[in-house]
């Protein structure tokens, strides 16, 4: 997707509001937690996230807490949130809703 510019705060807020389940952690990060019926389901989702992240060359911070997976996104090169974070978040939501 190439290098992207940091989103202005108002644009980032609007984009985050359109992302089901995602919230702003602070000025540079967004996060979402996903819940699963079993630990293997959670790990399977993380594997789908990993494949998407590799394809996009944009990797989230991932925390697995038994049946809950939390993803956090930012764009280091831009010093905050970019459209790439928003696209990634949408793709992860799609992976959750279509496979879980």
Architecture overview:
This protein is of the alpha+beta class and 100 residues long. The longest helix is centred in the middle third of the chain and has 18 residues. The protein is globular. The chain has a single domain, classed as Gyrase A, domain 2 (2-Layer Sandwich). It has three helices and four strands, in the order H-E-E-H-E-E-H. Strands 1-2-4-3 form a four-stranded antiparallel beta sheet, covered by helices on one side. Helix content is 44%, strand content 19%. Helix 2 packs antiparallel against helix 3.
Name its key features.
100 residues, Gyrase A, domain 2, 4-stranded antiparallel beta sheet
CATH fold description: Gyrase A, domain 2
Low-confidence stretches: none
Q: Class, according to the CATH hierarchy?
A: Alpha Beta
* Mean of residue pLDDT values: 94
**What strand order characterises the main sheet?**
1-2-4-3
Question: At CATH's second level, what is the architecture?
Answer: 2-Layer Sandwich
Structural classification: alpha+beta
Brief overview, please?
The protein is 44% helix and 19% strand. By secondary structure, the protein is of the alpha+beta class.
């Amino acid at each position: 997707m190439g290098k992207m510019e940091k989103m202005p705060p108002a644009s980032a807020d609007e984009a985050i509001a359109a992302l089901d389940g995602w919230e702003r952690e602070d000025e540079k990060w967004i996060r979402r937690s996903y819940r699963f019926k079993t630990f293997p389901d959670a790990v399977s989702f993380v594997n789908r996230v990993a494949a998407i992240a590799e394809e996009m060359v944009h990797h989230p911070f991932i925390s697995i807490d038994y049946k809950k997976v939390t993803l956090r996104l930012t764009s280091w090169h831009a010093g905050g949130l970019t459209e790439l974070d928003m696209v990634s978040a949408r793709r992860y939501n799609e992976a959750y809703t279509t496979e879980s």
